[in-house]
Design goal:
The protein is built from 15 helices and 14 strands. It starts with 12 loop residues before the first helix and ends with a helix. The longest helix is centred in the C-terminal third of the chain and has 19 residues. Helices cover 40% and strands 14% of the residues. By secondary structure, it is of the alpha/beta class. It is globular.
């Protein structure tokens, strides 16, 4: 049996053709395909502005910085997320606080967020602060509740939507809103890493309905440089560095791949949802249900990950090793951020009950758009062999 990764990219002939066209063009970077990609993203997500950049981490950094986060700011982040959500706040020398998550979903817990916000001093609330909910594993965070709490306490809100492009929550009205649609947040960020829905090799984007935030992010991604004049001016070459930015530009090669991948996103989502439904159908009965729980039923889930949660402590790590020995690769998403040495040195020992409960049992099993039914059957069969050891 060949190796089955927990996730991987899907590259088509059309993707390769798109890149080859750029390879033979005048611009490999800082050319027209970047703007084309931004227009396509804005249209697909239904937002006014998209600013693409070199990584999902860069997108978070740009969004925070463009929202005004700086040394005296505070960012509140759920404990279950990748390091970048918090690290990008530290790049701005901001303070970080962690709130808890649901032990069932790993999504930010609005009650815990509310408690964190209540503890913020009036003096701190005078600064520019931010709440950063994470739409995790393909499910949308409770953005409406988080937005209401953030607004009540004068915080901006930046959604880390790297796991959930195309996901939606069904509201009481029956409306469907795409994650990162800008309905509740000041901005949302995407990642174009190969394991994500859209692959650019590396890359990211800031999505927003704020022209001011988009203009700032666009300037900061290229050293803080602004070009005040158009091509018809007598000095069209003139540029001015207005503030300290970074080289976070996306290349035209990556943008061309992103445009081609975006055309396939609806298909990717359909494939991921079909595979997730098949996992749920095959794993819901004994002996599986005696050993682990499945993700909640969520028709709007974008299914970046399929996370099972082992009921008995220690079984998750045994399963990870057992499956790896049989060429089925799994991953843990995530170690709570406060457990990492960097944050523990800074903040001391923190333990949040929801995050701890989710972490101790969570295991992401293989899920990606090109996962074949035969490989999925192999994953299910090996899981069966594992749980039968304890029958």
């Amino acid at each position: 049996m060949g190796l089955i990764p927990y996730s991987r990219q899907s590259i088509s002939d059309d993707d390769v053709t798109s890149i080859n066209r750029v390879m033979r063009s005048d611009f490999l970077t800082q050319g027209p395909r970047v703007k084309d990609f931004e227009k396509e993203l804005s249209s697909w997500f239904g937002v006014e502005h998209a600013v693409v950049c070199s990584s999902g981490t860069a997108a978070l950094h740009l969004a925070y910085a463009a929202a005004g986060v700086k040394e005296e700011s505070l960012g509140i982040v759920p404990a279950i997320t990748f390091s970048a959500t918090a690290n990008a706040l530290k790049y701005q020398s901001a303070k970080v606080a962690f709130c808890d998550v649901s032990p069932e979903t790993g999504l930010i817990d609005p009650e815990s967020l509310g408690q964190c916000l209540e503890q913020v001093s009036d003096e701190q609330k005078e600064k520019t602060n931010v709440v950063a909910p994470v739409s995790f594993a393909g499910s949308v965070a409770p953005l409406e509740k988080c937005s209401a709490l953030a607004n009540e306490h004068g915080f901006a809100m930046i959604e880390d939507a790297s796991h959930s492009p195309g996901a939606w929550k069904e509201e009481p009205s029956g409306s469907k809103a795409k994650s990162a649609s800008g309905q509740w947040e000041d901005a949302a960020t995407l990642s174009f890493h190969p394991v994500k829905h859209i692959c650019c090799g590396e890359g990211g984007a800031v999505l927003t309905n704020s022209g001011k935030l988009a203009e700032s992010a666009e300037k900061l991604r290229s050293h803080g440089i602004y070009r005040p004049f158009g091509e018809t001016h007598e000095t069209p070459w003139r540029y001015e560095q207005e503030e300290l930015g970074w080289n976070y530009r996306l290349t035209d090669l990556q943008a061309a791949l992103g445009i081609s991948q975006l055309k396939r996103l609806d298909g990717f989502l359909a494939q991921r949802r079909s595979l997730a439904a098949r996992y749920r159908e095959c794993l819901k009965e004994k002996p599986f249900c005696d050993h682990f729980e499945l993700p909640e039923v969520d028709p709007g889930n974008a299914w970046h990950l399929f996370v099972i949660r082992f009921k008995q402590e220690g079984r998750r790590d045994l399963a990870h090793k057992f499956l790896k020995e049989r060429n089925v690769l799994t991953q843990v998403h995530y170690v709570p951020l406060y457990r990492h040495p960097y944050f523990e040195r800074m903040m001391g020992k923190i333990r949040l009950p929801g995050a701890e409960s989710f972490f101790k049992g969570c295991l992401s099993i293989p899920l990606y758009a090109q996962l074949s039914e035969s490989d999925q059957d192999q994953v299910i069969e090996e899981l069966g062999h594992f749980v039968n050891q304890f029958a």
